Inverse folding.
């Protein structure tokens, strides 16, 4: 991930402060002739508030995304990409003054207030509850476009742990995920999380979460050994999500507990010229390259700072002080990170598909004839 | 991380197969007028075999690193950088034939054999026990140069878990790390790991490990919000290490278990115009920017595949078969990853120091006068 | 220049079709705490129609630039950069339908119609006279921000040749440039160009031009030998301007006619710790690095295709046909390229200043003490 | 062109001082399964001394190129690329001491001596006649690999002007180019250049030259509008050649003298689904994208400084002084730039082919059916 841009062929450049005039991104390098609709993009944004069936009237996201460039209207409806940069913009309907009079601002522990100041000597201190929502919107919009580059691939995310309560993987059902407010794939865990988060909210506290994203039907061969590893790019994309503190692929940190026999995924013949893996401890990536098995990535999101209890801190002028924030707060920001995680995985996969196609052209097919030299 | 090159100002481009003619890297963007010696670089390479006091005769790494460019000899001894690209080369003293007659090669489960083939349709199948050793050498060499960009900063790594056996953090002593074969900071865990690994080795098995790297005295302000986050770059650098399957910063995945009160690091006045953090759950990075507190990163290394038991697999020609490798094997490759992790952290920090200095020039100093506008 | 983004630390990403919803750019990596006003940016845009004294009422550019992010309002007025990405947007006040029904469109010779189609299989065929005006606007806006990174530096452009009529350099007067419609520095050439272009316009023809851009007070040391040469970056920036077909630095192509004695710039002691160059055939750059002497770059702009005479061409369906465009046309598009050339030079210099500062930190000062080793 | 690396998918990173231990480059992103031989690469290097028929005994370049990685031996002979980074190394057979005792070194006018010092405060002052030869070697080697990415494409260079003597284009014959010491395509100009350069050499002077490189059978559609223009990348690649001061495409600076009717290239139906261009003023590129017509690029090389006459200069310690160099010198360095120009064009085209293939996949075919939407 580099600068404000990530990706090398399918590139996404984001801009804007969530509370500023507008927020947006530029997607360039998108292949031409891909069709999508604004409704699809808007639906991806709306998914950031789960729990509503897509067949009922959807409460629309107050921030609407606009497409400024890079597409034409398709005669059959919707948009089609031209191959030129696609700019997506989300305007902020309630602007605030840009004045930065809050000179003696205290730094909120666990937030980037201090680090912005120590880096630049100036910071835009305006924040707010809706910020995090809008901030994720552009990435989710870019992910909706990236998804069009990989027809046949599915990318789905779910929360697998909130605080100390982990789901039961044996009951994993993707169809449950849209039916509860937690992107939870295990129906029996939902009431546990509801009760737990009610308590957290009443106490004015917050808690962390772990999100798992699974990509299926990914073509094998994406990513490059030595350089440009797919897992390295997934790691930076997911660690770049606000409040993320850890990333793992497949067994992840648990792989450190396993022996070689337990961890290696044996292979047998499968369908369609691909091996069939008897297990997937690798999480779909070996040597930095996709194997064709599902790519499984997880990231941990820290809790936001508690805000109803005064916290010890310092301020811009070097004084020790306390700080607490009034008002409504999000007891578990990890939940809204699910669509962002999916979007980042879409963007990284789209980029790697184009890079693989660029370097290699037509993919080789396994098995190779016994006498083939390549 | 991009392609074969990582970093944006302090850039490292690696090349070479460990079993080929030579392996090396090019470091460009290194500031001029930094002094280092080949002995320092060689010592970093030799550290990959811990357990020998640096005051005794060190057994030198059989592969010697050469500096091909980018330096001059300093009148007082050693080398000094000129600001032009520094090429480091390690020649392979025992070359092998490049013939790739092994057409029907079976794919070793858990290795990149299959993925190389499915990506390129051709692969260099020659591998070997010494490969992983040499592969790490160029990165460790680059890290030795990177360290010169950050005088005053220390970067140290240690193994914190092997298999199910974790160290006792309350007994952490950095001085112990060079005194045992495991980079272990807890003297009481050493015999436990020795016994455990003896059993693993006899069983012809292998096991994973977790490595922790700590960087101290890192200037605050490195990394950029929104884009170019320091933790995102650390994540891709560490996930890019062979056999790495997970990366975390500070509390990492454990942050998901904590509440806001438990996780936020409160601040008081400290020395030298920096706040003093009362805790460091953040691992030294907030909002993608260094805080000045120690940067704490951990990565998990998976076990190599067991090799004395035949494993089910397929081969290049599409046949189901079995594979097992004869000979000596490494029961825990995670151990030798410690210097590589340190080197990657050095390289990422060097890059971010130059990027910060480039964008901002002279760093702002906290505290800021009460009436200061910037 | 790479993708839709140019620069490495001071990076500009542009988006938008001139006839689409909006056009804009994102400037990221801009140092914090730089002040500028929207009026300054708008004035740069308005300069694209020269001939009006800045002390009279300026006819404002119909397309207004907005700043969407990356700044705060300064208490003393105007904006100040925060170091975060600055998005600049120019909305198109008269949108057109996105329908692309013109399937059998003929390709205009000398335009990119055919090449867009052959690359992407789809193209946005809507164009128009105002397109080129708006297209340049975002780059000029980015250049206005870049100028703030280099206080003390001046960058000025002028037209030096239209068709076969070249200025007389001995009469070069920068103060004349804003006083005529041609950015001409030689008052005696102005009536010659006026007469010539009147004839060209009446004939329904068009003609090419050469633009020269001079940057003064550029710090020496910008650019890097071997890699990242300042002149290579200037070349790609200027060749990337629409209709540009040639770029030269200093003597340029004329250097091929000179002998070594004629071309080398001898040096004597100057002021302020810089040498004084007795000539400037080098155009301010040696070995890819700025010398401190004025940087002189020239680029040639081709004429737009004649449009009142039918031209032989083919169309999308593979038929031979003719094409001619009705309406008003620009007899010399090279003239409006002057502010674009200036803006590109500002952006490249800003990028190189940050890169130099990043790699080197505080610049060395010449002369160096006789016994100094660095 | 960026840093020490140019290209985005087919990437070349160079390193080494010509007088140092070794010089080399790393080519990464090369497609797999391309065959080449060391003899082909060596032959490209040897071409830097033209005038010898390839059927006679070739005097081999004293510096031999080695391939360190990224290939395997093909059963039928030669090497085949594996898709992994290819490192090419040329060792310097006569090393020199790295001591930099020449503290009071005078700066040679027209050379990069002063600019290196003012940028870094330290420079490697060792140079020499053979330097320029070896410096070009790595780029020529990289170009030989790049050529394999574009089978069917030809890239050929020639000198078109030395000093004031230009060739007669009506007598252009590519078969003449290898038959004379000047890469001259016009047999009648050869004796004129011989006589002229004899005089130049005797006078201890030097003169500049213009080199033209033509690429034929380039697929249309390479390069991208708005971003990643092919001509912009060619411009930076060619301007990056040592001593280059100008670059032009097609008509180049002469386009500024033409009217629209004279400059536009009309089209008729051609063979193989491509239009036939009735002229090629555009030099094969429109809107930054290749048209399929021959790509014609020219670059101007300045003369090296005269060296037998003392030149006024200053030195490192700030003293005014004189400098002159003894010994043999090259009267026209532009001549040896021809293979370098070809190599740079190969590299840029290879990179753009991969980028185009990556973004678009299978290229669209013209003509498009009348009712086709894409």
């Amino acid at each position: 991930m580099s600068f404000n841009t990530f990706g090398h062929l399918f590139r996404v450049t984001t801009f804007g402060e969530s509370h500023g005039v507008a927020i947006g991104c530029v997607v360039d390098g998108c292949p031409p002739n891909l069709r999508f609709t604004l409704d699809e993009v808007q639906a991806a944004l709306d998914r950031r508030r789960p729990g509503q069936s897509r067949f009922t009237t959807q409460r629309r996201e107050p921030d609407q995304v606009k497409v400024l460039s890079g597409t034409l209207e398709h005669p059959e409806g919707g948009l089609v990409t031209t191959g030129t940069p696609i700019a997506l913009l989300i305007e902020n309907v309630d602007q605030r003054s840009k004045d930065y009079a809050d000179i003696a601002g205290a730094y909120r522990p666990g937030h980037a207030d201090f680090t912005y100041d120590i880096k630049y000597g100036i910071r835009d201190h305006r924040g707010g509850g809706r910020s995090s929502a809008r901030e994720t919107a552009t990435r989710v919009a870019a992910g909706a476009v990236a998804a069009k580059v990989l027809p046949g691939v599915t990318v789905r995310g779910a929360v697998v742990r909130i605080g100390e309560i982990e789901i039961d993987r044996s009951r994993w059902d993707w169809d449950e995920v849209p039916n509860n407010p937690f992107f939870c794939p295990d129906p029996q865990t939902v009431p546990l999380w509801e009760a737990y988060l009610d308590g957290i909210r009443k106490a004015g506290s917050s808690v962390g979460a772990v999100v798992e994203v699974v990509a299926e039907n990914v073509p094998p061969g994406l990513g490059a050994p030595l350089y440009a590893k797919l897992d390295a790019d997934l790691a930076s994309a997911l660690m770049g999500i606000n409040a993320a503190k850890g990333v793992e692929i497949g067994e992840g940190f648990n792989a450190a507990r396993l022996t070689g026999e337990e961890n290696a995924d044996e292979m047998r013949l499968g369908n369609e010229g691909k091996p069939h893996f008897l297990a997937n401890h690798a999480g779909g990536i070996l040597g930095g390259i996709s194997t064709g098995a599902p790519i499984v990535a997880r990231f941990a999101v820290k809790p936001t700072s508690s805000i109803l209890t005064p916290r010890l801190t310092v301020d811009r002028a070097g004084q020790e002080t306390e700080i607490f924030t009034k008002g409504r707060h999000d007891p578990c920001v990890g939940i809204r990170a699910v669509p962002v995680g999916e979007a980042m995985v879409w963007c990284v996969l789209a980029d790697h598909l184009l890079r693989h196609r660029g370097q290699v052209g037509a993919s080789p097919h396994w098995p190779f004839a016994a006498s083939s030299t390549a």
User: Anything to note?
Assistant: The CA atoms of residues 24 and 40 of chain C lie 17 Å apart. Chain C has seven helices and 19 strands.
